[in-house]
Every structure is written in structure tokens, then in C-alpha cells.
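Protein in question kept underneath.
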Amino acid sequence: KIRVALGQGISGRVAAEGRPIHLRGRADRRSYDLIRERVDVESALCVPLIHAGRVLGVLNVHHSTRADAFSDEDLRFMEQLARLDAQIIARAQEHESLRSQAARYDAIRQVQKVLRGPALLSDRLESFCSFVAKHADGGIAHLYLGEPDGSMRMAASSLPGGGFAGEYRLPPGVGVDGEAIDRRQAIVLRRENGRLGYLALPLLAGTQLIGLLSIQIGERADQAPGLLESLSEIAAAAAETIARTNREAQMATRAERINAINETSIRMLSCDEPNEVARLATSSAAMILEADHAILRLQDPNTRRYSIRSYFGSAEGTAQERLFRLDKAVTVDAIRRRAPHLIPDASIDPRFSEYSEDLRSVLAAPIKRDGHVIGTITVYDKVALDRFFASRFDDEDLQIFGRFVAYVERAINHALTHQENQQHRNFDEETGLPNRAYLEKRLDEEISRAAGRENALALCVCKLENRDEIVAEADAAHAARVISTLAEAMKAHLRDFDVLARIDKDEFAVLMPEPGRTPGERVFELARAVADAVSKNESLNQPVRVGLAFGYGVYPADGRDRASLTEHARKPRIRMV
């Protein structure tokens, strides 16, 4: 093909000015910007092909020997012929444009059909890359999508297995693809013959950068005209479709998560045991947040240490030990922060890097009760169905996690309150011993178990006989110290399976299963040991000596039911001062 710039040579001048030239004799270099002087042209007619005010081209005829070969009549004929040719060319170009546009629209429809299909997203993205590669004359296509940390991850490729060979990341500004991301502009590389060779097309949905489509064009001999425009439109359609799909998926996922949290909260709030709440919390957190591991710790009221109450995950052996060491450090940090937070990558965080080898992303939160931190809940490593490697939690996950933790706190508080209420119903607040209701329940159980056997159980009652006198001569606090010392002295001289209870403000009872052949002797030994322990404490016996009375009843001789046995046991048989 002969290419001439506008204004250059005779044809270029006609195209630039839109007026015909009738040349008689050789062209003058001074009058025309000639590229080269031709000796084989003595005369010529050069007419513009104009349609609808637009110059489509130039029609040339020349004679190599005669300077007067063409007349003015010939020029008028050429102008008529040029107008007819221009109409034909314009119609052909319009028809070609419509065909090309229809092909591009068809390609866009195919893109939308592939990306919005029923298959898994990873399969749809692979199909899209294969479609693009085929459309690019049998080339190669890679699709990168944005990650929460700002990097671009290879999500799919037209190459078999290309999207799953590893965690391929494309940082901005690195290479041709990185430069296209940085500039947010398409980069086109052409071969020496001017044909397309490589395209790096940023996927933009409005101002949002969705990803990048990288295309290596195949080397077919008949590269289609408008291929660049077609691939650019495919990229634009893909960006909009992927952005819309992501938005819809995020909305659906959020709705599913919230529904799951609401259902889980009902189940957790129906639990009366803190350990059962912890088990439900870890399993539900892992499933709702798609986490690989979940751990819940609660503070031990005695040691004040935060111990693991529930773990949900697949770690075992040394892997579990490493996880628990990391969780200990994360727990300390969560208690200090006092709010749900995200650790994007524990492996590069100086606070946790020495404990984290394989684990990356972490969500952690303290569990509070009445403003005090009583535990922590943590989840580790987000698992995705479309990749082999763990991904990272993002701000959306943190919001869902915070919502979930609020329900966990309510459920833990409910379980602990229920536990405390049960304890208050069955235990004496002043001494921490079981109360009358608990003892009666156990006594009924032991009587039922005894089934009439002789000496199967005994009930001993110890009464502080002069409590009112102690309060009058000293004060109520002194009487409380006497009660506490008496309780400790009795506990110190009982067997592990005996049950000591406080059944009244000044009475204690001891349930003795299998007391032996001589229950009375056992009771007398207990009374003497307790009295000795109390009498040795001189401060307790000032200003009034402590007076104790002991009674007992043996089943079934002294009573075959709870009421009769208790009544018999409350009659004093031994007095100690």
C-alpha cells in the first residue's frame, strides 16, 4: 500500500484541500511538496472522493508521455465518477462498521453471559479468559483482580491451571501490566509490522479499578480490523459485569451472614452453660467468617488466667501448639486494645511474627461483661473456595465479626448469670457451702440409693448455740468470723465424698454416705476435732466462749425419710464449749 500524508505530494494536497488538480506537464517541486520526482508522469487528473463533506480518498489517473492527454471534459467526467465512487465507498464503510459493531456487541453479550452464568466464579473467570484468548486470534489472556490490600491477584488464565499454580501477585508500577495499573490507562504494544502484539487493559468501573486484563495477541495472518477496539470494549464490559457481580455477591453474602448470626444468637442465648456457648461461638464464627481456626478463651475466676474453652479447626500436634502460642500473644493484644480489630498479616507483624509461620490474617476481639474483659475470641485465616491458599480478612469481615461478638457477649453473660443464679440457689453466699435446698436434694438421692440398707447413711447437725450472745457481747462481724472458722474446721475433718452444708444461720449439716458400723463414734470424733480447732483460736472465744451442739441421725433406724431423719439429727447429743 502507498501511504501519503495530508498535504504531501499531489494526492496529499488534493486530500487536504478537497479540490481537484489538472496537471499538464511534469509537476513542479516548488509548487508541490513532492516525496520523489517521477519521470513517468507527463499529465494527470487527481480528484478527491468526497461524501457528506468528508474526504474519503483520492482518485488518480495519469499519462506517461503526453502533456495534453486530458481535457477539461475529462476532468468533469472524473469528478462525476469520484462522486459515485465516494457514495459506494461510504456505503461499504457503513456496512463494514455495522458488521464490526454487531460483532463487538455479540462479543460483549458473550462476556456478560459467561461472567453472569450459574457456575462458580472461578470457573466463569477461566471461561472468560479462554473466550478473550480465542477472540485475540488464539493468544493468551490473564485476568488480575484487586485484593483488599491493594495488590492484584491472578484470578484466572486461559492457560490450563494458570490461575491456581500459586499466589501470583501483580504490584503496581512493575512491568508493562503494573504500569498500566499505575497509570490506569491501556498500554498497547505492536509488532514491527504494525500488528497488535500485547495489550494491558485496566478494568475500570467508573472510577473504581477492578483489575487488569493482560492479552498476548496471536499471530494469525488475517488480523481483524478493529481488534483493539473490540478487545477494549470487551474489557470495559467485563469490568462493569465483574463490579456488578461483586456488589451483588457482597450484598448476598452479608445478608446470609447476618441471618446466620441471628440464628446462632438464638441458639447461644438458649444455652445455660458457658462452655456450650463457647463451643457454638467458635464453630459458628469459623463458618460465618469462612475461617480456618476459631478460639474462645474465658477468664478463670480462681487463677485469673484466660484459658481456652473452645477451639474449632483442623490443627493438630505441633501445628496446634504453634497456633495456641500465637493466640496467647493475640489475646494479650486484644485485652489491651479492648475492641474488635483486624491483623492483616501476623507473619510480618513484629508483635506476632515469631509465633506465626503459616498463619496470616487474624480477627480478634475481647469479650466484656459489665465493662470488664472476661475473655477473647479470635479467628484465623480466611478460606476461599476458589483458591488453594488462605486469603485475608477485610473491613467487611471486621464489621460482621464485631456484630457477632456482641451476641457472643450477651450469650456468655446470660450463661454466667444463670450459673451464678443456680449457685446462689444451691449455695450459701457467706461461706460458699451448699445450702439447705441442695442438702435436701442430695439427702433424697442418698435415701433412694440406700433402699433400706442398715447404716447406709448418717446425717450430722452442728449448731452454734450462743450466736445471739456473741452478737450481743461482740458484734455481727465477730459472729461471722466464728461461722467462717467453724465451716473451715468442719471441712478439714470430713471425707472427700461427705457433703457439708449450711442449713440455717447458726446450723451446719453433714451428709455421710456409708458411715461404717458405728456412725456415732464417727460423729463424736468429728465433734471433738471441730471443737478443738475452734477452742484453739483465743480471739474467737473472747469475750464469749463459743458453744457448739452436735446431733445425728442414722438411716433407717432414726428415720426412713428426709424429714424424720433431719428432725432426729437436729436434737443435740454432744455439747462442746
Summary: Residues 72-115 form the longest helix (44 residues).
